[in-house]
Amino acid sequence: MRMAKQHLSFSFDRSSNDVIKHKSVLNAISNPSQNQKSLLARVANDDVGAMEQCIQDYSSLVWNLVKRRVASHAAAEDLVQEIYTEIWKCAGRFDASQGNETTFIAMIARRRVIDWTRKQTRGPEWVALPDNLDDLSATIESPAISVADHEAIASLVKTLPEQTQQLFEMHYDRGLTQQEIAQSTDLPLGTVKTLLRRGLLEIRSRLFRQSSSESLTTEAG
Amino acid sequence: MNSFPLQTPDEELQAGHALADLSEQEWDLWHAMAKDNGIAPDAHLEWIVLQLEIEAAMNEPEIIPASLVTTLKEQARNRSQQVGPIEPTQSKIQPRRGHSPWWGWSVAACLAVLLVLQSQKPAPGSKAVPLELSKTIFIQEAPDLLRLPLAGTTGAYAQTQGEVLWSDEKQEGYLVLSDLPANDRERYQYQLWIVDPLRDEIPVDGGVFDVTPTGDTSVVIPIEAKLNIRQPQAFVITVEQVGGVVKSKQEKVVGVAKK
């Protein structure tokens, strides 16, 4: 099954009043569905065709987001069903001007998975992300970050120091837990945690620096 | 080797929150800072982690089982024909009870009652019908019903108990309170506050209300949130001057319900 992989093209114009406008967020050429922008809007209207398209385009993404944290195959299947039920319910909240559908769907999936994991471990309460992209972007002051997609972020990881890059690669690309990384690298768990956190903060800093540069053109994909 | 500048403890916590790797001790610190300083999740960091996970998931070789895709599509088709949300099949997370032949009739009966109730549906908190009815309809309809027990504090409010019912989706809710002493409405009133760190560090006004000496031990109060609520973490009742205040000094807290 082909996974929905969006190739986003960004172009920023900071010429007027320091406002960054992204001229083209979704590149329809490489979108899996022709009517990408209106897919979730049609889902919100219980359009069966749109719902099936949404499953076709995004179920592998949802599945892999779930499987990264849920080892049990049966539990993962149940979670994916629950996530899609939530997508059907929340589709009407999607605002294309605030971000892309991939992020919207992934956000729903991630929240569900972390909530499920927390319940399994009875760990500390995890405060979820805001309810929708509108809420999320409302709290983001820099447009450069709110439109920075997964490929742009991944490319920034490659600019981090080698050791931090390796930890990110192990954690995200190979799906290792922090504990597994510590065992694999012989680093103390606390060091792994600290390096990942500082790497994350550094990515944010670099994005801020990008957004404050005179002009920025990012080609991802 | 890592050459990043040292981060402040706040930033470390924010990054840990985004990575969902806070220890229990750090969580305690997080909650304390949320309470004292209004710390809220850093949307930038949360966004970055989300994008990293998307990138990783998109590069995963594992393919979703075809049978699950088929199930999802069947559920989608059913949803378009059904009233109400569909349940996941064969759920291990929330096991469904075995359904007797009477199950369908029970559902039908409940739907019939719901339809009757809906035909009488008032505006939230409308005085045209009893609040109890509004509350009942609300409980049946709210897709994301949050129920939090509320406990009184000390002194005259030590015996106060109750429950907060709230729906983010409907932006509607009710307080069900028992043994809350009647107030002298010439001198003071009760005021509800909704603590929603994602929305604002300052609690949102949930409305001013009175408890009259009717002899009823239990009262239902509609929540009148003045702003859109996202993810309430707590509900607090305070005693305030008549008409309420914009920002409470919380000098007299009556009761608290929290997640």
Report on this model:
The complex is a heterodimer of chains A (221) and B (259). With 221 residues, chain A is mainly alpha-helical. Chain A has two domains: 1-140, RNA polymerase sigma factor, region 2, helix turn helix motif (Rna Polymerase Sigma Factor, Chain: A); 148-221, Winged helix-like DNA-binding domain superfamily/Winged helix DNA-binding domain (Arc Repressor Mutant, subunit A). Helices cover 57% and strands 5% of the residues of chain A. In chain A, strands 2-1-3 form a three-stranded antiparallel sheet, with no helix packed on it. The two termini of chain A are 20 Å apart. Mean pLDDT of chain A is 72; it is low at 1-36, 123-144 and 214-221. With 259 residues, chain B is α+β, with helices and mostly antiparallel strands. Chain B has helices at 9-19, 24-37, 43-58, 66-81, 102-119, 131-141; strands spanning 146-152, 161-167, 172-178, 188-195, 204-209, 218-222, 234-241, 253-258. In chain B, strands 5-4-7-8-1-2-3-6 form an eight-stranded antiparallel sheet, with helices on one face. Chain B is flat, with a radius of gyration of 23 Å. Chains A and B meet through helix 2, helix 3, helix 4, helix 5 and helix 7 of A and helix 1, helix 3 and helix 4 of B.
Low-confidence stretches of chain B: 83-129
First-to-last CA distance of chain A: 20 Å
- How would you spell out the order of helices and strands of chain B? HHHHHHEEEEEEEE
Low confidence ranges of chain A: 1-36, 123-144, 214-221
Mean pLDDT of chain B: 76
Strand order, biggest sheet of chain B?
5-4-7-8-1-2-3-6
CATH architectural designation of the largest domain in chain A: Orthogonal Bundle
Sheet with the most strands of chain A? 3 strands, antiparallel
Counting helices, strands and paired strands, the structural category of chain B is alpha+beta
Share in helix of chain A:
55-70%
Question: Shape of chain A, please?
Answer: flat
How big is the Rg of chain B? Answer: 23 Å
What's the Cα radius of gyration of chain A? 18 Å
The helix tally of chain B amounts to 6
- What is the total number of structural domains of chain A? 2
Fraction of helical residues of chain B: 25-40%
Fourth CATH level, the homologous superfamily of the largest domain in chain A: RNA polymerase sigma factor, region 2, helix turn helix motif
The CATH topology of the largest domain in chain A: Rna Polymerase Sigma Factor, Chain: A
